[in-house]
Amino acid sequence: MNITYIDHSGFLVETKDCYYIFDYYQGKLPVLDRHKPAIVFSSHFHQDHYNPEIFSILQSMGITCQAVLANDISKRKYPEGIRVTTVQHDKTYQLDNGTTVSTLLSTDSGVAFVVTTAEGTIYHAGDLNDWYWEGEPEADNRRMTGMYRAAIDKIRGMHFDVAFVPLDPRQEGHYADGMLYFLQQADCGAVFPMHYWGQPQVIERFLAEHPQHQPRIRHTNTAKGETV
């Protein structure tokens, strides 16, 4: 699989037979092979995770596509003429190209995705994270941590060839709580931090504070659109 970072939580995963595009918000896609179809995933309705402009971008390239959209995305924002699979949390769906999509309940909105392809398994968290915020009531933060860990425990021990996981500097001292618990529970070949709001230096901070995880972490502090 080839991975291209687009922006924010947006990634393009290319396999031999298909393009998988996750949580497109903004940014430029590389030139794509019009003979290869695409599946567009959006984890929830927030504007930094779902932008229907992605469908016109793909159509302008001559790409045939379908969509897998969380059920909190308004049908008024569905693309015209595009086949849409609407997904709920904790369900499994079989797409017509043999791809299997399973979901987890997000701790914010919508779902996280577990996508099994012919070339490997992908985890995209969307906004599933341990959203611990300084200054919020401790009971609320503890409840959030419990909800997050309950969701991640459902994929404990699973192998992911590639995973996309939030690392959000706005959380200050708790910026890495969700990432650390995910790394403890899941077996991953490569983990791409995301949702860092244009502050990729948070990845360097994470690697400095937790060097034991360096072999699995892929740094996206590269030119947007670069394939790794």
Tell me the strand order in the biggest sheet: 1-2-3-4-5-6
Secondary-structure content class: alpha/beta
Succession of helices and strands: EEEEHEEEEEEHEHEH
Radius of gyration (CA) equals 17 Å
Beta fraction = 25-35%
Taken from the alpha-carbon principal axes, the silhouette is globular
- Indicate the multimeric state: single chain
**Average predicted local confidence, pLDDT:** 95
Q: Flag low-confidence runs.
A: none
Main sheet makeup = 6 strands, mixed
Percentage of helical residues? Answer: 10-25%
The number of helical elements comes to: 4
- N→C terminal distance: 9 Å
Number of strands: 12
Question: What does this entry look like structurally?
Answer:
The protein is an alpha/beta fold and 228 residues long. The chain contains 4 helices and 12 strands; from the N terminus they run ββββαββββββαβαβα. Helix 2 (138-153) packs parallel to helix 3. The longest helix is centred in the middle third of the chain and has 16 residues, at 138-153. The model has no long low-confidence stretch (mean pLDDT 95).
